[in-house]
Amino acid sequence: MPTISLKRDELFHALGKTYTDEEFDELCFQYGLELDEVTSEKEQIEREKGVGKAVGASEVVEYKIEIPANRYDLLCLEGLVRGLLVFLEKEKAPFYKTVQPVNGKVQRLVIQNSTAQVRPYCVAAVLRNIKFDQVGTLCYTCTRRPVTYKF
After folding, report:
1. Structural domain includes residue 62
2. Among residues 123, 24, 150, which one has the least CA distance to residue 80?
3. CA–CA distance, 60 with 9 (Å, rounded to integer)
4. 14: Cβ–Cβ under 8 A, 6 or more apart, which residues?
5. What pTM did the predictor assign?
6. From CA 113, how far away is CA 56, in angstroms rounded?
7. What is the mean pLDDT of residues 52-65?
8. What is the dihedral of CA 128, 130, 135, 139, to 10 degrees?
9. Distances (CA, A) of 77 to 48, 110, 142
């Protein structure tokens, strides 16, 4: 399973609540995730390379959270926070609707015969009028990749 590292305080700020490590571990368990490790950049360097190598490294607490391989929506802070807030019933699940393009030209995804033998089903979406801040752009860039669902 993929593991993401998030700064604890940023996560709690986005969730609107401060948890103890044990409380957050339990929340993860209830949601089907695993809080794999509570650490910091400094602790990681000390563990991997020795105490002397960690001089100047950040002591900000980080959570390493295991994410199921089929949940790409949870691979960034924004996605995980949305998922947890919906789970906690503090936010409604997002509603997405299909909108025809203004120019009327619908884009199509065509699966060639050679691809259909390996991947017979595919889903695609075109997102328009989206604005990213620097962090959102980095998150999108780091997590976008082809997703395969088996039906």
Report:
1. yes
2. 24
3. 8
4. 77, 78, 81
5. 0.71
6. 55
7. 90
8. -30
9. 26, 33, 12
Strand partners, 35: 65
Query: How far apart are the C-alpha atoms of 57 and 38, rounded to whole Å?
Result: 16
In this structure, is residue 151 part of a structural domain? Answer: no
Tell me the pLDDT tens digit for each residue of 69-128: 889 889 989 899 999 999 999 999 988 788 888 888 888 888 888 888 888 888 888 877
CATH number at residue 94: 3.30.56.10
How many independent structural domains does the chain possess? 1
- Domain interval for residue 83: 3-143
Quote the radius of gyration of the chain (alpha carbons, Å).
Answer: 20
pLDDT per residue over 31-50, tens digit each?
Answer: 999 999 999 998 988 888 98
How far is C-alpha 102 from the geometric centre of its chain's CA atoms?
31
